[in-house]
Amino acid sequence: MTIDARTFHSWTPKASELQRGWVVVDVSGEVLGRAASQIAMLLRGKNKPTYAPHMDGGDFVIVLNAEKIVVTGRKADQKLYYRYTGYPGGLRETTYKVMMQKHPERILKAAVKGMLPKTRLGRRLLRKLHIYSGNRHPHTAQQPAQFALSK
């Protein structure tokens, strides 16, 4: 008996089979890029056996202590963040130190956004990310599970 390769199909989960949970991640003392890559993995669902690259099967992620994240080397002095006001000549740049003082959540959000797909799926995944300074969050009703970042 010969096996025809056209008869075998890859398994893909149905939307009704996907289960999304809530996960709490504490990033105090963690390196920015390493934490962001693991958070992106949780958002995409790559840690689950039902992972499909074209589907949103990841968990909702709550990040705590965003103001305690660290960077290595001289990035604290040299790293720049850009935004555009929408007006001619309106490109603004902000250093890492200033951004950390004013909006520490935006630093981690920008890092995670860069690691997600640049498509509709990536924008949908980013909406499942909730970042907070401090160790309190308003999502206790969802009963989130703790997730320890691997070093």
Notes on the protein architecture:
The protein has a domain at 19-71 and 100-147: Ribosomal Protein L13p, Chain: A (Alpha-Beta Complex). Strands 5-2-1-6 form a 4-stranded parallel sheet, covered by helices on one side. By secondary structure, the protein is of the alpha/beta class. Helices cover 28% and strands 17% of the residues. The model has no long low-confidence stretch (mean pLDDT 93). The chain has helices at 32-44, 75-78, 96-102, 104-114, 120-126, and strands at 22-26, 60-64, 80-84, 91-95, 129-131, 145-147. β3 (80-84) and β4 form a beta hairpin.
Please sum up the structure shown.
With about 150 residues, the protein is an alpha/beta fold. Strand 3 and strand 4 (about 90-95) form a beta hairpin. It has 5 helices and 6 strands.
